[in-house]
Amino acid sequence: WLRRRAAVFAQAELLIAVSEAVRARLIELGAPPEKVVCHYIGVDTSVFGGGLDTEPDDERDPAHVLFVGRLAEVKGVGDLLEAAAIARSTTPSLTLTVVGDGPLRDQLHARATQLELPVQFIDSATQLEVAALMASATLLCAPSKATASGQREAFGLVLAEAQASGLPVVAYRSGGTGEALTHEVGGLLVPEGDVVALATALTELLTHPTRRAAMGAAGREEAHRRFDLAAQSAQLGEMYRAVIARHANAADDDAATGPSA
Q1: Of 163, 174, 210, 259, whose CB has the highest number of CB atoms within 10 Å?
Q2: pTM for this predicted structure
Q3: What secondary structure letter does DSSP report for 188?
Q4: Continuous H helices in the chain
Q5: Radius of gyration for the chain, computed over Cα atoms and rounded to the nearest angstrom
Q6: Distance between CA atoms of 88 and 29, rounded to whole angstroms?
Q7: Which residue intervals of 12-156 are DSSP H helices?
Q8: What average pLDDT does this structure show over 14-26?
């Protein structure tokens, strides 16, 4: 991929980036700007916020923080554990569910034990199981951050899925997360890597149910408007059809012109 990246950029008719952050990175790497378009991934709103009964805020667990993702450096789960430990000083009923597996699994289990955190680790879950957790949790925390090698969150589909479920989100502003979540609409974005700010945001939403409920409703409306799977798939199909049409027109032009002298 690295050896052929320039050739891919030159030969591709269209380069689709899942966020403006990824689009900017592709251009930085040499992709022609006119070829690169941003297109957000769609959320199946018949499952997230549609197919299951979503509990109103006053019937959800009052202090249940959910994380869904790989247990890898870029996802920032270690920061979540530290922030949860801080937040428990003001919200002692806080519980945490971590759904996912990855290279940091054993390290995170050990740290949760050291911090005496009430954490339920779930190695894997189906889409419907995740949707059920989102329908009953208090909020989602997604502290993705840049790794030492420079990897960042491309978009953060789980943020959009949570909002579609009416679940407020607390996240670091990193990579494409600021495009998946609008600050003060569907949740709160805090500076990347700031564990204290992350803990403060968790506490803010856990201790203010009215504000949390308003963000849950606003986030749900925005996610269904911006990220609905059917609408996003239709837009993607139009992009493909436009590329096919350009090739068809070029072939017709060649046929009309005939062979070169």
Answers
A1: 163
A2: 0.91
A3: E
A4: 5-11, 20-28, 77-87, 105-115, 127-136, 157-164, 177-180, 195-206, 209-227, 229-257
A5: 21
A6: 43
A7: 20-28, 77-87, 105-115, 127-136
A8: 97
